[in-house]
Specification:
Elements lengths: L5 E5 L5 E2 L12 E7 L4 E6 L10 E7 L4 E4 L5 E6 L8 E11 L15 E3 L6 E6 L7 E7 L5 E8 L5 E6 L6 E9 L2 E9 L1
Antiparallel strand pairs: 1-2, 1-3, 3-8, 4-7, 5-6, 5-8, 9-10, 10-13, 11-12, 11-14, 14-15
Length: about 200
């Protein structure tokens, strides 16, 4: 935990697990999570992939502190804050992954991983973002987040119905892997960016 952000599953015995293998998942399965952070601040839980879920079930992240439940899909980002007192120990009992029978969404988002382009990636001095318009959104907020969950660059751009393109400078950043978080209206999407 002292080196950075540290999420883990919790076994029935109370043991913290980096990998949690279960025989079955049902609509009543609850996977408690603990989170360790190096300091007070804002952090993000980001879903990179979801695989091998049973047919007919959808996974959600539940935050008991805020009461918010977020559907998990590739690219889903959930932002949360931790106070100085909370950062002194593992955050217990706040987060859990829960499951529910799949339902069809009334309106699919027009913002998808496939529809957003980030190039040149890996990058040295800057990269460009091209994305489509999003219903009900007139601007996009872009944040570049390091591996500790810290926002190292924040900017916004106008978002037309036809979409937008903008450049993100990276020359002053330390080489490494970052997450680009894009928010347009109620839609959030993340992309991996490598700075060399």
């Amino acid at each position: 935990m002292p080196t950075g952000f540290n999420p883990a599953g919790v076994a029935a015995t109370g043991e913290h697990l980096a990998i949690d293998i279960r025989n079955t998942f049902t609509a009543t399965t609850v996977l408690p999570l603990t989170v360790g952070v190096p300091a007070a601040g804002s952090y993000s839980l980001i879903t990179t992939t979801l695989a091998n879920l049973p047919a007919g079930l959808t996974a959600y992240l539940r935050d008991a502190r805020t009461g918010q439940t977020t559907q998990l899909a590739a690219g889903t980002s959930y932002n949360f804050s931790v106070s100085a007192i909370q950062a002194q120990a593992l955050v217990l009992g706040r987060f859990a992954v829960v499951f529910s029978p799949q339902t069809t969404l009334a309106t699919p988002s027009s913002l998808s991983v496939e529809a957003v382009s980030v190039y040149t990636n890996p990058t040295h001095s800057s990269f460009a973002v091209t994305m489509p318009g999003v219903t009900g959104a007139s601007a996009v907020q872009a944040e570049l987040v390091n591996t500790l969950g810290q926002v190292v660059r924040r900017q916004s751009a106008a978002l037309l119905a036809s979409g937008t393109s903008f450049s993100v400078p990276t020359a002053e950043l330390v080489a490494g892997v970052y997450v680009l978080r894009l928010q347009a209206g109620e839609t959030t999407l993340t992309k991996r960016v490598v700075v060399q």
